[in-house]
Design a protein that fits this description.
The chain contains six helices and no strands. By secondary structure, it is an all-alpha fold.
Length: about 110
């Protein structure tokens, strides 16, 4: 696993945070941003995927409109090239959370 890919993933995690802040109404996921900045994007995603339930952020995005879950960690980790950073179990958790609320998965995911 390339550190460079992890650095790019970290930037992608910060990017979904910025995108969520531009929603109407904005979602400012302060704890998410702090977690990413203190632990790193990969470790933050690992922690969120290890939880037995979806995060408050997942719920907040859903409440702002189901399509906003495309800004969720779950949606991000299922995309190329990021999915190479995660285990099959982690990807299964992400797929299940999205499917449970009726979200179409990113194209590259089966």
């Amino acid at each position: 696993m390339s550190l460079n890919l992890e650095e790019q993933f970290h930037a992608a995690m910060l990017h979904i945070h910025e995108q969520a802040a531009r929603l109407k109404p904005p979602y400012r996921a302060t704890r998410f941003r702090q977690l990413v900045l203190s632990s790193g994007g990969k470790a933050a995603a690992d922690q969120l995927l290890a939880s037995t339930s979806a995060s408050d952020g997942f719920t907040e995005l859903f409440l702002r409109g189901r399509e906003n879950l495309k800004l969720s960690v779950e949606y991000l980790v299922l995309q190329e090239p990021w999915k190479a950073l995660f285990s099959e179990e982690q990807l299964a958790v992400a797929r299940r959370r999205l499917q449970d609320v009726g979200i179409a998965l990113p194209d590259a995911v089966t």
